[in-house]
Specification:
With 86 residues, the chain is mainly beta. It has 1 helix and 6 strands. The protein has a 6-stranded mixed β-sheet with strand order 4-3-2-1-6-5. The protein starts with 11 loop residues before the first strand and ends in a 13-residue tail after the last helix.
């Protein structure tokens, strides 16, 4: 199982269907945030249990891209807070 020490800021995150979700921008004991975008950010909160494998330095998550997009649209709160200081 993946733990907090296995996830580092800057690691790429892929959905189970191979879509690039972005990069890990923050992590703590409860989970991590994946962010994509330059001017407008799209954030995806994730738990370590959401990681299916680490492949070539990238996290492959256990849900498809649609699941993460829907979760971001719902603006579900993250245990980590907002990583961009807003």
């Amino acid at each position: 199982m993946i733990s907090a020490s296995d996830v580092q800021p800057g690691m790429s995150a892929l959905s189970s269907d191979g879509a690039e979700l972005g990069a890990v921008c923050s992590a703590d004991a409860d989970g991590f945030q994946v962010a994509r975008g330059g001017f407008f950010y799209e954030d995806y909160p994730a738990r370590y249990a959401d990681v299916r494998e680490v492949r070539g330095g990238a996290l492959v998550l256990s849900h498809d891209a649609e699941w993460f997009h829907a979760r971001a649209l719902l603006d579900l709160p993250s245990a980590l807070g907002h990583p961009h200081g807003e």
